[in-house]
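If your schedule permits, I should be very grateful for your opinion on a structural question. Kindly check, if you would, that the fold set down in the tokens agrees with what the sequence suggests. Thank you for your consideration; the sequence and its tokens are set out here:
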Amino acid sequence: MPCRLAAIGAVVATLTALAGAFAYAGGWIAPDRLTAQTIINQFQRNAGLHEGFRRNHAKGVCIDGYFESDGAAASLSSASVFAAGRTPVIGRLAIPGGNPTAPDGNSAVRSMALMFTQPDGQQWRSGMNSTPMFGVHTPEQFYQQLVAAQPDPATGKPDPAKQKAFLAANPESQALQAWMRGHPPASSYANTAYYSVNAFYLVDANGRRQAVRWSMQPELPYAPVTAAEKGQPAWLADDLVHRLEAGPLRWHLRLTLAAPGDPTDDATQSWPDDRKQVDAGTLVIEHASAQDNGACRDVNFDPTILPAGIAPSGDPLLAARSAAYALSYQRRTREVALGAH
């Protein structure tokens, strides 16, 4: 029984880390008045208050480079980022959680956040996770998950019984659990694939809309994380810097096109593997820098900041993410202004 409960705890901890990446906060979240403050305060109860840092994905590293479009997606979207040529990019690689000093091995999930700035000044901001689907799809589920993962003061760890109850009440989480069991985390930020999880629409010059999800697929071959790496507190950033010393790192932006009937408003449901894909170009990362003073420090990677030619779907988690990021941004920047971090 203890081993079984430990396994349940590990699953819910992973799902909670994922949910933290897409928390619904800001304004009124549900008819029963679940507020932004309630959600963000719960983040702080779970991880502790670390002033000046993001309330989730607190530990990360800034990156910069460019996106080289090959023009293959230009017929799908009027956004100039898809026209043949280069677009400058600022980004961030991170792990979930609100503790900026947490060991890298504490999480099986990584994230990539990017800001593309077009020549006309319009921006495309995207936040991706290293899983192609999500564990919950409603604000209520997310909040319940956070509460279930709150550490017990007596043990410093979540209550396994509460976590087991959450999983039993939310079978939608099973698809993500199954995927993660078959996909151990990669050994590096650089050989990890990152997924939009939510659906969006590409809009062409004539107003035609195509539902898509996207991913960044690394050119470096996948290799699973080793036990030795897990034992190092900050190997992900160190490894990234070391690899960049040898030259730029590259990912391919792969657009997956939805077919009629594919769900666009539920991130827990994946699309069939046979859906058409378009390789829209190459993300080239040239430099990494500490988040304390890097270019990504003051960027709110709100995924609903989109240029003309890209539009949000009806997935409720998109508006949720936007509001959550905004509130986290407000709190941490105020703390910095007052002398924190």
User: Anything to note?
Assistant: The beta strands are 59-69, 85-95, 111-117, 123-129, 194-195, 200-203, 209-218, 249-257, 277-290, 310-312.
